[in-house]
Amino acid sequence: MFAYKLLSVALAFLWSAQIVFCSYEKCTCTKPAIRREWRAFTTEEKAEWIRAINCLSQQPHDPALTPSVDPSVSLIPPINTSSSYFDDIVYVHMDLNTRIHFTGQFFPWHRWFVHVFEESLKNKCGYTGVSPYWNWTIDAPDFYESSFWKDSDPVSGLGGWGDPNADFAVPDGGFHKLPLSYPSPHTVRRNFTLLSFDQPSLAALFPDPLKLGNTSFTASVVKAVLETSAGDYQGLQVAIEVPEGPHSGVHTTVGADLFGSCPKSAPANCTPGFTWSPNDPLFFMHHAMIDKIWYDWQSYDPVNVNSFFGGSVQHIESWDAYNQYPSGGPPYLSLDSMMPADGLFPEVTIGDVMNTTGGFLCYVYE
């Protein structure tokens, strides 16, 4: 009980910027923030979010960060102690990559991750806004030419596609100078790849290499996801996280950092994957959209609210293994299972994040 009280106090301090009141026993959300699509942000709101992220990249490394996955499994470089706090957040995702994808941790962990990123922006850089989400279904029909990529403003723009003559580094927008440490020093890169599932090293998971990436995240795909059978949490996860589905499709089609491909400066033993995909701040907008789909599904039918099923062990060694355990194999998780945080943030349970207005989380989607 004493340890639980200490955790509650830590949570109350960490999330003090939210309109949330925490006692030792519970938190109460009284005025939820409203998360909006990026294009609904004013120019000033966009500039503030971009400013705060650049600020986070100037904050020092936190020595509390402690990897918990064996490097022979995570296949990532050791912590760079001269890196930034933004890099620390990226590193948590890198280290836990095999525990938070294709397991029951996928939806709850990434919901928590977007939240603690937002709180870091507030607590370390004075951000006063909310997390934007990116409704990529708007852009899917003509992804490369979408106006989403046309805002090159150095203060309020997200920037566009990378320069193929400069290792696909993004040359414009508010993140074109964002310093990144992993897997090696570089700046944000984007490499449009329409045949985004044509990945020979991942052929076991991408059985249709000719499938166009942008067809995986259309409005009709999302509509079908929301109509997943009531209470079928695993079915929902399969619809979103299936290797050639909307989660992967956005990552692989944007390519480069959002996909986790190795920059030219990386060492020869660099292993690509979704590991350092938070390098591109689009990651947090993408996963806010994934979270919104889960939120919308939870709101679709009362039985969906606390529906959960998943294991703790990833099985993507083959297509058959994935089909047997699409949300992870045993040991199975429950709402009482803790979510790993590598020492950078207080750990919470899966149950703690099932309701976006039921505890220390305090937001809804418009």
Could you characterize what this model shows?
It is a single chain. The chain has 366 residues and is mainly alpha-helical. It contains 12 helices and 6 strands. The protein has a two-stranded antiparallel sheet. It has a two-stranded parallel sheet with strand order 3-6. It has a two-stranded antiparallel ribbon with strand order 4-5. Helix 2 packs across helix 6 (106-125) and helix 6 (106-125) crosses helix 11. It is globular, with a radius of gyration of 19 Å. The two termini are 38 Å apart.
- Determine the N-to-C terminus distance: 38 Å
Structural class, please?
A: mainly alpha
Order of helices and strands: HEEEHHHHHHHHHHEHEE
Shape: globular
Spatial order of the strands forming the largest sheet: 1-2
Strand content: 5-15%
Count of DSSP-assigned helices:
12
> Roughly how many Å is the radius of gyration?
19 Å
Fraction of residues in H or I helices: 25-40%
Unreliable spans: 1-21
Sheet having the most strands: 2 strands, antiparallel
DSSP summary, beta strand count: 6
Overall mean pLDDT? 92
Signal peptide: 1-22
Domain Tyrosinase copper-binding: 101-118, 280-291
Pfam family, one: Tyrosinase
Protein name: Di-copper centre-containing protein
Key features of this structure:
6 strands; Tyrosinase_Cu-bd; single chain; metal-binding; 33% helix; 366 residues; oxidoreductase activity; mainly alpha; Di-copper_centre_dom_sf; signal
